[in-house]
C-alpha cells in the first residue's frame, strides 16, 4: 500500500485581494514507503503547497489526500498523520522553539505525551542521527544554519516519523550545510527506510533521488528517475529550471559523439565514461568531426552561461597580478582585525588578518564558508564596522581617522546585505528606492531621476513598478528593489553579500546579468557568494577567506587550479572542476589544465574524445 | 565603540556559562532566593542594612565566578533611570517628609537630611534590584528559568491560569530575542548604508525622531510576524495542540545545597526585616 496517495488535488488560496490564487490544479500522485522523491519547480509552481498537504497542514479545496489509510480531510487523525509525516521547513530559525538544543528536540515527543524516559531515549537517538550530540546543551542561535537545520530534522525524527518532508529545507543554507542535510536525508532513507520527500529548486539535489517530480502551474509537468529527467534539457529550461552542469556536459558530448552516454549524473561517472571511451575507442564517429572546438555553436540555446552582452575588454590590471604602480586600489583592507562583543566575557575574534584590495572597474569575489568572517570583513568597506587593528583605506581616505565623514563614504560605497528585501519598509516601491536620495536632501526632480535610473539598472521599469506595493512583489523582485535602493545613491563601488542566496534559478540568472550590466556602466563590484559556478563566471579576481584570514587571492583560474586546497577548507568547487580533477587523476588531462566553466569543460572533454577518435583514424578533419 | 552592537552592555538577560556553586543551584532556588533578597531590600528603611545586603550580593558574585567588572557595568543602562529618580526625589519629595533641620529651601524645593537619607536609600535599592536580577539571569539559562517559573506557578493552574502557555510564550520570546536583536542590528546597518540616520532630530521633536526610526521598526515587525507564522506552522507540524496531555522532558533536581541557599536567603531577609537597624534618626534624634 502506498504511504501517501493524492487524488485530483486542487488547492486555492483565498487572499484578501479579490482574485483567489489557484496553487494546485489537479495533482495525482502516489508515494511508496521507502521512496526518495524530489519535488522540483520554480517559485510559485505549487510545490510547497503540495508538500503541506502531506501532513494535513492544509486541507484540499477539492480532491483527496490519504496518508496510510487516513484521509487528511477528516480531522480525526491529524495527530496520527503528523506523527507519521514529519516536516522540516525553509528557515531553520523560525522552527526552533526552545533556547536549548535538546529541549527543542524534545518538543515533539513532549507533545505526544510520551513518558520522560522515552523522550530522553528519542532525544539521544535523534541527535545521534544528525551528528549533533556534542551540541545538545548549546543555545540554537549560536549554531550555523546547517547545524540549526539538523536540529530541526532531529526534532522531527524524535517523533519517529515514517515520512520526512523537507520543504525547501536547504534553500537558506551554504553548500556545507546543504550537504550535511542531504547526507542525513540520504542515510535515513537508505539505512532506516524512512520515506523522504524533498522539495527544492536546486536540480543538483535531485541526483540522489529515486524519482523526480517537476511541478509547474500547479500540476505535475514531468516525472521520472533523475537520469531520464535530466536529459530533457529543453523542457527543463522551459520550466525555468537549471540542469546540473554534469548532465549538460554529458548530453553535449553525446550529441557530438553519439557513442558517449547521455545519462550521466556525477563527475565521477563522466570521467569514467571518458576513460572507457579513450581506452576502447568504441564508438562510431558521426557528427563529432567538425565542431570539437566551437562546441558551443551547436547549442544556441545554451543560455546558462551569462553572455556578457557588452563584452567590455577585461581591464588589464584585474587580470594580472603585477599591478601598475600608478593604479591605487579603490578599497583596501590591510591586516584588518575585528572582535565582536569586545571587552565583554563573550568577546570573539571575528577576523584576524584580512587583506583585500579592490581596483577600479573589476568584479571581486569573496568566498569562504559560513563563519569564516567574510561578512564581517566587507562591513569595513563603508565604515559600518571599525577595524580594531590594521588599516582600512577607502577612496584614499583612512577610515580609522575619526574625522572622516562616514555618510559621504557610505554614499560612495554601497553595501547590500544578505536578504536585503528584509529591510524594505515603504509601502510603494518608488518611495523605498527614494529613501537614500531623499535623505541626501536632493531636489524632487533629482530624486525622481535617480530612482528611475536605479530601478531600470536592476531591470524594473520605472513607470510600471514605482507605484507597486512593495510587499506584493516576488522575492526576486523585492531583492532587486533593495539593490536599487543602494544604487540610487550612485555609488562608485557596490558591495553585495550573497546577492543570489535563496533565489530560484531564473531569478538568479536575471540578477547575475544585472550585475554584469552594472560593471559595464563603470561600477566596481565586490561580491560574496557560496555559489562557485557563479563566482567563476563573473568575477575578475577572487579572495578566499578562512578562519578570519585571507588565505588565497588570484584570478578564478588561479584559484580553481588549487581545487584540492579549496576542498580541504570545506569549500565546494564547480562540478566541472570535479570532472577535470577526476580526469587528471586518470592521467587523461594534464595537471596544469584549469577548468571551471561549462564551456571550458566541453572544450576539454570534446578535445579528449576527438583525439581518441582521431587516433582511431576515423575522425577529425 | 561600535554604534551598531546593541546587546553589548545589557547584562540582564545574558547568560555567562561558568562552573560555580551558584550556577549549579536549582533555578527554583535562585528564583526564591532572588525574591527573598528583593524582599529584604524593600523591607528596611536603613541605609546600613541595604549596604550590607549589597555587600552580600557582591559576595554572591564572587561565588558565581563571574567577572566582577562586567557584572558591575550592567548598571550602566540603568543609569538614566537612576538619575531621573534622583532628580525627581530631590525636587518634589523634600516637602513630604517632616524633618527638624532644613539645609536648603527655595519655592517648593526643600532639602533636608531626611530627604538625603531617602534619596540614598532609593538609589541603593534600585542598584540592588538591578544586581539581583542580573545575577539571576547571568547564572541561569533562560530555559531553566522558564522551567523554574512554570513549576513554581503550577499551583495557579488549578484556578484556571494558563501557566503552561505563559511559560511557553516566555520561552519563545527569550528564544527570539537574540534573533531579533541580530535582525535589528542588520537593518540598522543596511539603512545606514542607504544614507539613513536615526538620531539627528532635535530632542523637542519626538515626532521626527519616531518617523526617522520607521525604517528600523517596520522591517522588524514585518519579519517578526512572518517568523511567527512560520513558527505556528512548525509547531503544528510537530503535533502541538496546547498544554493538555503534554509531558515534560526537563527534570529539575532540588538538592542539599538548595535547602542551604534558601535557608540563608531567608535568614538574610528576616535579619534585615526584624533586627533594629539604625537609621539616621537613631543617631541624630533631634532631626
What oligomeric state is this? heterodimer
Q: Provide the domain count of chain B.
A: 1
Low-confidence stretches of chain B: none
Poorly predicted spans of chain A: 284-325, 617-621
Structural class determined from secondary elements of chain A: alpha/beta
Rg on CA atoms of chain A, Å: 26 Å
Percent strand of chain B equals under 5%
Structural class of chain B: mainly alpha
Largest sheet geometry of chain B: 2 strands, antiparallel
pLDDT average of chain B, as an integer?
86
CATH homologous superfamily (4th level) name of the largest domain in chain A: P-loop containing nucleotide triphosphate hydrolases
Shape of chain A: globular
SS elements, strand count of chain B: 2
Q: If helices are DSSP runs of H or I spanning 4 or more residues, what is the number of helices of chain B?
A: 11
End-to-end distance of chain B: 48 Å
User: What is the typical, i.e. mean, pLDDT of chain A?
Assistant: 86
| Strand adjacency order, main sheet of chain B | 1-2
Roughly how many Å is the radius of gyration of chain B?
23 Å
Biggest sheet of chain A: strands, sense, closure? 6 strands, mixed
The CATH topology of the largest domain in chain A, please?
Rossmann fold
CATH architecture of the largest domain in chain A: 3-Layer(aba) Sandwich
Amino acid at each position: 500500500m502506498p504511504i501517501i496517495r493524492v487524488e485530483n488535488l486542487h488547492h486555492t488560496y483565498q487572499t484578501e485581494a479579490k482574485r483567489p490564487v489557484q496553487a494546485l490544479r489537479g495533482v495525482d500522485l502516489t508515494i511508496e514507503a521507502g521512496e526518495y522523491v524530489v519535488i522540483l519547480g520554480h517559485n510559485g509552481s505549487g510545490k510547497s503547497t503540495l508538500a503541506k498537504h502531506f501532513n494535513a497542514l492544509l486541507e484540499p479545496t477539492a480532491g483527496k489526500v490519504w496518508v496510510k489509510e487516513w484521509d487528511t480531510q477528516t480531522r480525526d487523525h491529524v495527530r496520527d498523520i503528523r506523527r507519521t509525516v514529519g516536516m522540516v521547513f525553509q528557515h531553520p530559525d523560525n522552527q526552533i522553539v526552545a533556547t536549548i538544543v535538546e529541549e527543542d528536540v524534545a518538543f515533539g515527543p513532549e507533545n505526544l505525551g510520551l513518558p520522560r524516559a522515552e523522550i530522553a531515549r528519542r532525544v539521544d537517538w535523534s541527535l545521534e542521527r544528525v551528528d549533533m550530540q556534542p551540541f545538545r546543551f548549546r543555545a540554537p542561535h549560536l549554531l550555523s544554519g546547517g547545524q540549526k537545520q539538523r536540529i530541526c530534522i532531529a526534532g522531527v525524527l524524535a517523533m519517529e516519523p515514517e515520512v520526512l518532508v523537507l520543504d525547501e529545507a536547504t534553500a537558506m543554507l551554504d553548500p556545507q550545510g546543504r550537504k550535511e542535510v542531504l547526507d542525513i536525508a540520504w542515510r535515513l532513507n537508505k539505512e532506516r527506510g524512512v520515506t523522504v520527500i524533498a522539495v527544492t529548486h536546486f536540480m543538483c539535489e535531485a541526483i540522489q533521488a529515486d524519482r523526480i517530480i517537476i511541478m509547474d502551474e500547479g500540476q505535475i509537468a514531468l516525472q521520472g528517475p533523475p537520469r531520464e529527467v535530466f536529459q530533457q534539457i529543453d523542457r527543463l529550461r522551459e520550466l525555468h529550471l537549471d540542469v546540473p552542469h554534469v548532465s549538460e556536459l554529458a548530453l553535449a558530448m553525446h550529441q557530438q559523439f553519439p557513442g558517449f552516454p547521455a545519462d550521466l549524473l556525477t563527475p565521477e561517472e563522466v570521467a569514467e565514461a571518458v576513460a572507457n571511451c579513450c581506452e576502447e575507442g568504441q564508438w562510431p564517429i558521426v557528427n563529432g568531426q567538425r565542431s570539437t572546438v566551437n562546441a558551443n555553436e551547436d547549442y544556441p540555446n545554451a543560455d546558462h552561461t551569462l553572455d556578457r552582452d557588452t563584452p567590455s575588454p577585461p581591464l588589464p590590471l584585474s587580470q594580472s597580478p603585477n599591478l601598475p604602480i600608478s593604479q591605487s586600489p579603490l578599497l583596501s583592507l590591510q591586516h584588518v582585525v575585528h572582535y565582536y562583543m569586545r571587552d565583554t566575557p563573550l568577546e570573539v575574534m571575528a577576523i584576524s588578518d584580512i587583506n583585500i584590495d579592490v581596483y577600479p572597474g573589476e568584479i571581486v569575489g569573496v568566498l569562504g564558508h559560513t563563519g569564516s568572517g567574510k561578512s564581517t570583513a566587507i562591513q569595513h568597506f563603508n565604515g559600518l564596522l571599525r577595524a580594531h587593528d590594521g588599516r582600512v583605506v577607502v577612496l584614499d581616505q583612512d577610515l580609522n581617522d575619526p574625522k572622516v565623514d562616514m555618510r559621504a563614504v557610505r554614499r560612495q560605497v554601497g553595501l547590500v546585505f544578505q536578504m536585503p528585501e528584509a529591510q524594505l519598509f515603504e509601502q510603494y516601491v518608488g518611495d523605498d528606492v527614494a529613501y537614500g536620495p531623499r535623505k541626501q536632501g536632493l531636489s524632487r526632480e533629482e530624486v525622481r531621476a535617480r530612482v528611475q535610473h536605479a530601478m531600470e539598472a536592476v531591470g524594473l521599469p520605472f513607470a510600471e513598478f514605482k507605484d507597486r506595493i512593495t510587499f506584493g512583489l516576488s522575492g526576486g523582485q523585492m531583492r532587486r528593489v533593495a539593490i536599487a535602493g543602494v544604487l540610487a545613491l550612485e555609488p562608485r563601488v557596490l558591495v553585495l553579500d550573497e546577492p543570489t542566496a535563496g533565489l530560484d534559478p531564473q531569478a538568479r540568472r536575471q540578477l547575475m546579468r544585472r550585475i554584469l550590466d552594472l560593471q559595464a556602466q563603470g561600477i566596481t563590484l565586490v561580491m560574496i557568494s557560496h555559489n562557485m559556478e557563479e563566482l567563476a563566471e563573473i568575477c575578475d579576481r577572487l579572495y578566499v577567506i578562512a578562519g578570519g584570514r585571507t588565505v588565497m587571492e588570484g584570478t578564478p583560474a588561479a584559484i580553481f587550479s588549487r581545487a584540492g586546497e579549496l576542498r580541504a577548507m570545506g569549500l565546494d568547487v564547480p562540478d566541472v572542476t570535479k570532472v577535470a580533477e577526476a580526469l587528471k587523476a586518470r592521467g587523461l588531462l594534464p595537471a596544469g589544465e584549469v577548468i571551471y566553466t561549462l564551456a571550458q569543460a566541453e572544450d576539454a572533454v570534446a578535445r579528449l574524445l576527438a583525439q581518441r577518435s582521431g587516433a582511431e583514424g576515423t575522425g577529425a578533419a | 565603540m561600535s554604534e551598531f552592537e546593541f546587546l553589548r552592555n545589557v547584562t540582564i538577560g545574558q547568560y555567562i556559562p561558568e562552573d560555580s556553586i551558584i550556577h549549579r543551584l536549582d533555578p527554583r532556588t535562585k528564583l526564591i532566593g532572588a525574591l527573598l533578597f528583593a524582599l529584604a531590600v524593600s523591607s528596611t528603611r536603613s541605609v546600613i542594612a541595604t549596604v550590607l545586603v549589597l555587600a552580600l550580593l557582591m559576595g554572591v558574585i564572587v561565588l558565581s565566578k563571574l567577572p566582577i567588572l562586567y557584572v558591575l557595568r550592567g548598571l550602566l543602562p540603568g543609569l538614566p533611570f537612576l538619575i531621573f529618580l534622583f532628580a525627581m526625589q530631590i525636587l518634589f519629595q523634600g516637602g513630604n517628609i517632616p524633618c527638624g533641620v532644613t539645609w536648603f529651601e527655595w519655592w517648593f524645593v526643600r532639602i533636608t537630611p531626611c530627604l538625603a537619607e531617602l534619596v540614598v536609600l532609593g538609589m541603593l535599592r534600585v542598584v540592588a534590584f538591578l544586581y539581583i536580577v542580573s545575577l539571576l539571569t547571568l547564572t541561569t539559562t533562560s530555559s531553566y528559568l522558564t522551567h523554574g517559573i512554570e513549576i513554581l506557578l503550577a499551583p495557579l493552574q488549578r484556578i484556571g491560569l494558563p501557566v503552561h502557555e505563559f511559560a511557553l510564550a516566555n520561552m519563545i520570546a527569550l528564544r527570539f530575542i537574540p534573533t531579533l536583536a541580530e535582525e535589528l542590528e542588520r537593518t540598522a546597518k543596511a539603512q545606514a548604508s542607504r544614507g539613513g540616520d536615526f538620531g539627528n532630530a532635535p530632542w523637542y521633536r519626538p515626532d521626527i525622531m519616531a518617523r526617522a526610526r520607521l525604517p528600523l521598526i517596520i522591517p522588524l515587525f514585518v519579519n517578526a510576524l512572518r517568523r511567527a507564522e512560520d513558527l505556528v506552522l512548525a509547531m503544528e507540524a510537530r503535533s502541538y495542540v496546547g498544554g493538555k496531555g503534554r509531558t515534560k522532558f526537563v527534570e529539575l533536581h532540588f538538592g542539599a545545597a538548595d535547602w542551604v541557599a534558601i535557608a540563608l536567603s531567608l535568614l538574610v531577609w528576616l535579619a534585615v526585616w526584624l533586627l533594629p537597624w539604625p537609621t539616621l534618626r537613631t543617631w541624630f534624634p533631634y532631626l
